Amino acid sequence: MSKFFVTCARGTEEVTAYELEEIGADAIEIGMGGVHFEGDQDVLYKAHLWLRTANRILLPLRSFQCRSPEEMYDNLVKFKWETFLHGDLTFAVECTISGRNSITMNHSHYARLKAKDAIVDRIREKTGDRPNVDTDHPDVRVVLYIRDGVCTLNMDATGESLHNRGYRSRHAEAPLKETLAAAILLLSGWDGETPLVDPMCGSGTLLAEAALIASNTAPGLLRERFTFMNWPDFHAPRWEKCVEEAKDAQVELPDNFLFGFDQDRDAVKQTEFALKVLGFEDKATITQAKFEEFQRPEGMEQGFLVMNPPYGERLGDEEGLVPLYKLMGDT
Q1: In the chain, which residue ranges form alpha helices assigned H by DSSP?
Q2: DSSP per-residue letters across 225-277
Q3: Which of 143, 244, 256, 327 could be 154's S-S partner, Cβ–Cβ 3.0 to 4.6 Å?
């Protein structure tokens, strides 16, 4: 059993904890902006497949006093990086500093460079090779949290954030992250069986996440790679078993299940694109229409309405939204 920490949007920790419970995680403890849990490889793999509200899963390795860059270097250079970094694998270091630290440990960029030097020096000493850095798409990602003079060393099991499902158009503007959309749906009381309507669908995030939930599709099936696949203990047959179980758990959506409306033609196209990528285009009806023209879809006896209305991106926008919110209430 290993200890992990899964990050998520603040305010959604309880939903993420529930999801972890559903996949069999142990010792679940809610923190700020994430959830601690314990589990074996199967739990780690299932977490990457099934968690809808998580951003990233970290494996904490150790914590140590970190009152200066030199002290951090001395601790990191002792770690057996050759266990994780071998062959042609690339790496990157992320560093977040908060709380009260010494004046020499208040710059995350410098701390990140010092950590990189420690890793490179250790690998060079033990293997004679120099590992390459790839800040965009590294094979191994090291995450450091420095708070109040203590550094926690983590390995990132995920890589690219789990909110990047891969169904968005490159041109889509989406202020609502996929993980947050999933959390809204899971908190809303929607049963996953009642037809769902979004009268302000935008680029279709809520509709796409609703389709994944109702069809019991594991969002991780949309991804091909995670960084834990580069770890020395990665067990490919066990991973493939978890993938096959997730595929077998999918169910067919009924016809006329999703309805989206938006006054912007580009938004309608983006929603249609997302649902087509997911394979649900024949289960949805997307219409270009103004909100005040919204009508109950024909033949619908019961439905569930959810939407992400404009909320004012800048201070002072709120006054201009008053007529819209009044219209929403009247409609």
Answers
A1: 13-22, 41-50, 69-76, 108-127, 178-188, 205-214, 236-248, 265-278, 318-330
A2: --GGGGSTT--HHHHHHHHHHHHHT--PPPSS-EEEEES-HHHHHHHHHHHHH
A3: 143
Q: Backbone phi, then psi, for 277, in 5-degree steps?
A: -60, -40
Measured CA to CA, the distance from residue 203 to residue 269 in angstroms comes to 8
Q: What Å distances lie between residue 203 and 51, 170, 286, CA to CA?
A: 22, 11, 11
Contacts made by residues 292-295, CB under 8 angstroms, sequence distance 24+: 292/327, 292/331, 294/199, 294/261, 294/331
Report how far apart the first and last C-alpha atoms of the chain are (Å, whole number). Answer: 53
The tokens for 152 are 């926690």
Q: Angle at the Cα of 129 (from 125 to 135), degrees rounded to 5?
A: 110
CATH architecture of 2-156: 2-Layer Sandwich (3.30)
Strands 284-288 and 304-305 come out as: unpaired
Q: What is the pLDDT of residues 180-213, one digit of tens each?
A: 999 999 999 999 999 999 999 999 999 999 999 9
Nearest to 168 by CA among 203, 134, 142: 203
- CA dist., res. 147 & res. 149, Å (int): 6
Q: What are phi and psi of 219, to 5 degrees?
A: -60, -25
Provide the residue ranges of all domains of the chain, joining segments of one domain with +. 2-156, 178-217+227-330
What is the token pair recorded at 142? 């090291």
Which residues lie below 8 Å from residue 300, measured CB to CB, with a gap of 6+?
A: 195, 197, 256, 259
* Segment 279-316, tens digit of pLDDT: 999 999 999 998 887 787 877 788 999 999 876 554 45
The answer to whether 251 touches 215, Cβ cutoff 8 Å, is yes
CATH number of 178-217+227-330: 3.40.50.150
Token code pair at residue 128: 């004679």
305: Cβ–Cβ under 8 A, 6 or more apart, which residues? Answer: 196, 197, 198, 199
Q: Which amino acid is at 259?
A: F
Token code pair at residue 266: 């580009």
pTM for this prediction: 0.91
